[in-house]
Amino acid sequence: MGMAASAVRGNHSHTTWKHIVIIVTTVLLFSAPSVCAQCRILRCNSDFVAATLEMGIIGGGGKEGANAGYCSALRSYALCTQRTARACRGDLAYHSAVQGIEDLLIQHRCPKTGPTAQPRPLPPFSGDGCFYEKGFMQREGRAPEYLHCGVFGDPHVRTFNDEFQTCSVQGAWPLIDNQYLYIQATSTPTRGSSYTTILTKITVILKNWRECAEPQMYEAQLDNVPPAFVDGSVTSGDRRGHQSLRIHSHDPGRHAEIWATHIGTTLVVRQVGRSLSLSVRSPRAIVESYTPEQDLQLCVWGCPVSQRLEMPHTHPSSPAYSHCSSLLPARDVYFQACLFDLQVTGDLNSSASAVAALKDARAMISDPDRVHLLTDRAGTNPPSLPVVLALSVLTETLRHTILGPV
């Protein structure tokens, strides 16, 4: 009888812990998107699969040349995971990939150092190659997916991944750095503050791309947002009477809009008050066309954790709250940015940068539901319902395990 009871208890304990493992895994899966929203392990996975497909050596291959190519692809895969390690901390898919790479390197006797796989070749050039959207429609049968990034005010950054941060970065920082486009912003401390900054310079480099566009540079500084490129031209890349690069301004000295049709990208540079701002609309394929070495991009990854500032609490009865409410009725990230800038500067005109950024977002984001990025103040987001339910079940299971049936 005692042995039977012990066996029952043992089986019950084993089953209980299996349930606990399942519940904990469920909690991790439901909470992962909020913790690892910047993790790019899926990009690493897809690049590795694409590289091996193009070489026709999935699984390694037995020939010496094929194995050398497979080892190069594995080393590129490993480098990609290293570049995204910080953002992927705690991500189950990431840790599985890292372990899998180690096993495959050993299995195929691949040296950990050596050449890496070459970047994917560009698609064949056609007559519509300088019209990104038209070419994409012909290849894919659908319109490209466009992403938006906005940098404005103190500065505040809305990333291509729809994350929102306020940064205290000083000096020159890359906002975008990919195969087609490089944008750098320079921030300087605001007067009377050692940790808040404003954008004082924006540099745009549009890279050479086949027959469509020659290298071109644009530079804006505080009190000087020119309606032309650095060489004085307003168009570039003439092909069949169409210019791949064009620049336009409806308020010279304070506004410039750059259209790069060969990469389907629009850039808007503004001076609002005593700060510059930048808004970008670009196809996902262009945004993601970077190498592992191009891993510092504020529009992609956001600013470093050590450089992020929390939004201060503002009482609804305060003048700042009333002022921003009159300009921005939705309690979204633009409203929060308005409050922050107004409290830091004490200047009512500083709220205009959030208003202009929202205007650009409306023009660049086709889905109206995605324009207003609604979020609670940093650190106060309540846990999702699935997480609450899973934790409740876990608590009850642990209570039964420790105390037994009541």
Automatic annotation (TrEMBL):
It is a lipid-anchor; GPI-anchor. Its main location: membrane. It is found in: Cell membrane. The keyword Signal applies. GO terms for biological process: BMP signaling pathway. One of its GO terms (molecular function) is coreceptor activity. Residues 39-112 form the Repulsive guidance molecule N-terminal domain. InterPro entries: RGM, RGM_C, RGM_N. It comes from the Eukaryota. Keywords: Autocatalytic cleavage, Cell membrane, Glycoprotein, GPI-anchor, Lipoprotein, Membrane, Signal. Residues 145-364 form the Repulsive guidance molecule C-terminal domain. It holds the Pfam family RGM_N. One of its GO terms (cellular component) is side of membrane. Belongs to the repulsive guidance molecule (RGM) family. This is Hemojuvelin. The lineage of its organism: Eukaryota, Metazoa, Chordata, Craniata, Vertebrata.
